[in-house]
Specification:
- The protein contains 16 helices and 13 strands.
- By secondary structure, it is α/β, with parallel strands linked by helices.
- Strands 3-2-1-4-5-6-11 form a seven-stranded parallel beta sheet, with helices on both faces.
- Helix 2 packs across helix 13.
- The longest helix has 22 residues.
- The termini are far apart.
- 35% of the residues are buried.
- The mean pLDDT is 88.
Amino acid sequence: MEFNGSIVQSLENKIILVTGATGYLAKLFVEKLLRVQPNVKHLFLLLRAADASSPTQRLNNDVTGKELFRVLREKRGLGFDYFISEKVTPIFGDVSLENLGIEDSDLEKKMHKEIHLVANFAATTNFHERYDVALAVNTMGAKHVLDFAEKCENLEMILHVSTAFVCNAEMPEVILEKPLSQILKESSKFLYVIEEEKKLMQHRLDGLKAEQVSKKQETAAMKELGLERAKFYGWPNTYAFTKALGEMIIGPHLKTNFPVVIVRPTGVTGTYREPFPGWIEGFKALDPMVVGVGRGKLPCFLGDYESLFDIIPGDMVVNAIIVAMVNAKANSHIYSDGDDNLIYHISSSAHREPTRLIKLLEYAYDYFCKNPLMGRDIGEIVKPVFFPTMSSFQEHVHNNYVVTMKF
């Protein structure tokens, strides 16, 4: 997507804070900004300190050093590193901590004085994350970013990346672009629920430590607790539940004197076009199934082969995010009067161009037949057979894999 002049121009001379900067979408966002608007004034990138490296080393290793920046690197040539050093300041911090874990008071004052836009990409996207981790990042992280942003003297807007999976069993079949407080029954109780869940989580964690269980046992117990609490409230997994709670924290601030924009993408996959087709990092959305076919590890599948998947390329998500930011900033005078159209669903529109599970696996099968994977542990590529019921699957397993002993 080529942005028109007004969109690109609106980002000129802006100073932007980006959280979760080593994540997939955040990297795409940063690369896009630097490529299409080199006159963006500055980017502050919040990075978690993963090891003893400096923020600059982490920026080089986990962000700008990635293949994603190949096009920008070629465009800038020998001046690439200088361009990045002029435009980007990497900061070690953590959204799970108050004040984003920034300890340098001079840097904090500088950021509060200069920042115009805040884009919160920070999240743990593991569906079955430890409950303490998911609450800290996905729920309290949203609050900490909001608290930090509200101290910025020249703030023009906040953008929070949520997910379409914040929906739960109580919600209607069609979810409108409305705050969860307008969709959920008894939504007001959830702000109280957040504090109670934090106490429950901490009590369980303290108990595990008192029992001196192993780290592996502690992790398993905290994952189990997250799934248990999510299902108790009607969400399918820890990720969706804690992201929904994060939205509920932000919800009351949707009608402040600056726009607070929430975007809800569906399943995010590799790039369609920018900066080049097919860039991906880690396993996203449907990748495990596709790779399973290529490795010959998915001979059969239990489920409805007509099931729909709503997936969208990462570069399309970032394009939509940037347009949403620009639109909110340009119309902030309207939103301050109470208009709540500050929530955007970003999807591939499954009703118009549906992606069915059977088609996805057929595409994968056809592709890997022509382009087989190489290396060890690669089995024979077979087209997956679907089993619509558990009984039909069990019968298949019994007939093909269970050895009957005769005495």
